[in-house]
Amino acid sequence: MARKACRAPATMEQELTCLRTSCSCCGYPIAVAYRTQRTITTLLGSCRLTLRVRRCRNPAWAWYHRPYRPEEEGKWALPHGEFGLDVIALVGSLRYTAHQSIPEIHQALRDRGVPIAERTVTHLLQRYEELVTLHLSDWRRLRVSAIEAKKMVISFFTRKAAISALNRLRITSALIAPHATLVRPGPSHGATSGP
Fold it and tell me: How far apart are CA 151 and CA 90, in angstroms?
């Protein structure tokens, strides 16, 4: 169903500019070509973003006249999205952590003051699932995580083995010490102190 009333005016305003002022391909300075506005609904309210979009003016390069939007725009919302990433994260959290249904999530968002339709909650849940899938399919990040996890597991077992060996050494030395005065556990035996 279409929206029956006009959207409420934005309660916050933010102007976003590009961090880069020269083209990454040719190094030619890129000037502000135009400004555009976008309204994003977040958990804190509605925010009007004014974006200063730049373009490369060097006709010899591939990025000639392509828009270069502010980098910070990506932290607010997905491209062409009306709701902020915080709303998408909350929808996913309520669905998969709190196990709430779509109508319950819709009511929870309405209780927080977010003007949203129930069908839009379904769309936001699909966006959340796409983001999770994208995050899980990033093989480079997963490879680094697996290597770090492997290091942690090896480190844990190595540490555990060292503690076990140290405890055996202490027990052995405690049993032998009354009978032989020359056996002393110490740094020469490779034992480390502390857990």
Answer: 33
Which residue segment(s) compose the domain that 64 sits in? 11-76
SS3 46: strand
DSSP alpha helices (H): ranges in the chain? 73-76, 85-96, 102-111, 118-136, 139-176
Boundary-marking domain end, from 59, 76, 93: 76
Q: Is residue 99 part of a domain?
A: no
Q: Which of 76, 103, 122 finishes a domain?
A: 76
Q: What is the pLDDT of residues 59-90, one digit of tens each?
A: 887 778 888 899 999 999 999 999 999 999 99
pLDDT interval class at 177 (50, 70, 90) = very low
Q: What letter does residue 189 receive in the DSSP assignment?
A: G
What is the count of structural domains for the chain? 2
> What local confidence, expressed as pLDDT, does residue 107 receive?
96
**Residue type at position 147:** I
